[in-house]
Amino acid sequence: MIKTPKLLATSSAMALAGLLAANSAAAAELGDVKDPIKLAVLEWTGAQVSTQLAGMILEKAGYAVEYVPAGSFPQYSGLSDGTLSATVEIWSNNVGDIYPRALAAGDIENIGSLGLETREGWAYPRFMEEVCPGLPDWTALKEPACAAALATTDTLPNGRLLDYPADWGSRSAEIIADNDLPLTAIPAGSEGAMIAELRAAQATHSPLLLMFWGPHHVLAEIDLGWVEMPPCASDDPDKCVKLPEVEKVVWSGFADKWPAGYEILKSFQVTSSDQEKLMAAILEEGQPLEEVAAGWIDSHQDVWQPWVDAAVD
User: Fold this and answer.
1) Does residue 110 contact residue 103 with C-beta atoms inside 8 Å?
2) Under 8 Å between Cβ of 264 and 57
3) Are strands 224-226 and 119-125 parallel, antiparallel or unpaired?
4) For 31-52, how does the pLDDT look when each residue is reduced to its tens digit (9 = 90+)?
């Protein structure tokens, strides 16, 4: 049947009404798109990468986003009163006592893991498995030949473990003593000094054992092995080396104000490999954070688009 102008007008009006209704439903699911979601920007590059990615994805969904510099501990006050909306990279070994209190009070909500595969412990360049046969088993470090290969004039007859800088604190010396290992922990002068020595050891095949962690940008460059850590004899878990969780936290009113954004952040994940590559581009190549993050967004639409679609459909 051929439609008359009147029927066409009616049909068009109905289509327009349906479109407006659909847009209204989507807006209701998005929540407040005018008031920006304020993401905490923490001190370290990895967290800044994660936060920038999360913000760009929220913007793709239609939200306004602000990036607010925040300290690791002060951020919890802002999250509790809503002056900060969310933080996407909280390491469980660096939360103090404010975080658990705010969580217990219901002022903030933990919305799950960021997805990073964290590492911490004694690490070594892969060639060390030839120098100390038996690695990554920690008992390989007991062998006299292994200790001799790692020894320096400062540690003879023990082998040297390059430890965290002194002002970071460390658990290595106590673990060495508890397990009667022929090692001496020597603090590094700085993170930069640790990285420089690691690169030199890799280039010259000089024996090296060091306390380290991941994700770290140098791991995009050097493949490290990780010692299966010896037992920790202490009753204090803070004196033991354990893998931290990395989690996402939002203000308690986030889900009501930005429902779809809440679902997007719950789904949001970053792999350690991706974060390390992005950090390396920023720290080693001098590329701007925003450009590096935008490149990931452009090349990983198949990763993040389903999070957005599931949240706003």
Assistant:
1) yes
2) yes
3) antiparallel
4) 999 999 999 999 999 999 999 9
- Rounded to whole angstroms, what are the CA distances from 187 to 164, 211, 219, 263? 5, 9, 21, 43
Token pair of 84, please?
């900060």
CATH of 31-117+244-312 given 3.40.50.150, 3.40.109.40, 3.40.190.10, 3.30.70.60: 3.40.190.10
Degrees to nearest 5, angle at CA 199 with 197 and 200 = 65
For 75-115, what is each residue's pLDDT tens digit? 999 999 999 999 999 998 778 788 999 999 999 999 999 99
Q: How far is CA 31 from CA 53, 108, 109, 181, 229, in A?
A: 21, 19, 18, 58, 48
From residue 43, alpha-carbon distances to 112, 190, 289 in Å are 21, 17, 13
Whole-prediction pTM value?
Answer: 0.83
